[in-house]
C-alpha cells in the first residue's frame, strides 16, 4: 500500500492532538480501541450519509491511533486533489468498471508489513439505499482478518470501534447480525441510512 499521513510521524502526532481537541470542542465522545488481534482488519464505516464522514473518520482514526486506508469514488481523486486524497489514505474505486477489487484488497492486507485497517462503507454511497454491498465481508474472508464494527452516530455525537466480528462464511446470518448492531445509529442525514 502507498504511504499515507498515518506514516508521517511528526504530522501524525500533531494531527492526533488536533483531532482530540477538535472532537472534544465539538462535543464528540470516542469509544473503544483496536484489539491486538485486529491490527490487520476491515472496518465497516456506517452510517455513511454525508461528505462530513471523511474528516470525522480521519479525526477519530488519529485519536484511536489507527492506520487506515479508505475507499472512495474515483471522481474525488481527480487533479488537483488526487495526491492529497491518497496521502489521507484514499484508494480510488471506479464503480463503472468491473475489476476484482475484493481480491486486490485482500491481497494488499495480507501483504502489508505492518498494521492496516481498511475502511469500507457497506452502503457504497451517501444516498439512501436498503441494500448493503458485501465487498467488505468478502475482503475480510479472503484476507482472513476480522471485521471491526466502527460507527459514527451524529445524533449522540458518538463514534468509535465496536465489537470485532469474525466472518463465518454464512453471509446471510452474518449480515443480519452486523445490521442489528448498526440499527440504532444515526448518520448526519438520518433518513438516508437503513440497517434493515
Major sheet, described briefly?
A: 7 strands, mixed
Q: How far apart are the termini?
A: 34 Å
Number of helices: 6
Q: Strands of the largest sheet, in order across it? A: 1-7-6-2-5-3-4
**Helix/strand order:** HEEHEHEHEHEEH
Helical amount? 25-40%
Taking pLDDT < 50 over at least 5 consecutive residues as the criterion, the unreliable ranges are none
* Average predicted confidence as pLDDT: 87
Give a short overview.
The chain is α/β, with parallel strands linked by helices and 196 residues long. The chain has helices spanning 9-25, 53-63, 82-87, 101-111, 135-143, 171-182, and strands at residues 29-31, 40-46, 68-73, 90-93, 116-120, 147-153, 158-165. The chain is built from six helices and seven strands.
Can you offer a commentary on this structure?
Helices cover 34% and strands 20% of the residues. It has one domain (5-185). With 196 residues, it is α/β, with parallel strands linked by helices.
Amino acid at each position: 500500500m502507498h504511504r499515507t499521513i498515518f506514516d508521517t510521524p511528526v504530522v501524525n502526532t500533531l494531527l492526533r492532538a488536533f483531532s482530540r481537541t477538535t472532537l472534544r470542542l465539538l462535543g464528540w465522545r470516542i469509544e473503544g480501541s483496536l484489539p491486538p488481534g485486529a491490527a490487520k482488519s476491515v472496518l465497516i464505516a456506517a452510517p455513511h450519509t454525508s461528505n462530513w464522514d471523511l474528516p470525522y473518520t480521519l479525526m477519530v482514526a488519529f485519536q484511536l491511533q489507527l492506520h487506515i486506508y479508505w475507499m472512495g469514488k474515483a471522481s474525488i481523486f481527480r487533479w488537483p486533489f488526487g495526491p492529497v486524497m491518497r496521502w489521507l489514505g484514499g484508494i480510488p474505486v471506479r464503480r463503472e468498471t468491473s475489476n476484482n477489487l475484493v481480491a486486490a484488497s485482500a491481497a494488499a492486507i495480507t501483504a502489508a508489513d505492518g498494521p492496516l485497517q481498511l475502511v469500507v462503507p457497506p452502503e457504497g454511497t451517501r444516498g439512501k439505499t436498503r441494500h448493503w454491498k458485501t465487498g467488505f465481508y468478502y475482503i475480510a474472508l479472503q484476507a482472513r482478518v476480522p471485521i471491526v464494527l466502527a460507527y459514527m452516530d451524529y445524533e449522540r455525537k458518538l463514534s468509535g470501534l465496536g465489537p470485532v466480528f469474525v466472518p463465518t462464511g454464512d453471509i446471510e446470518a452474518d449480515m443480519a447480525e452486523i445490521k442489528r448492531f448498526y440499527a440504532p445509529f444515526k448518520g448526519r442525514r438520518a433518513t438516508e441510512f437503513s440497517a434493515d
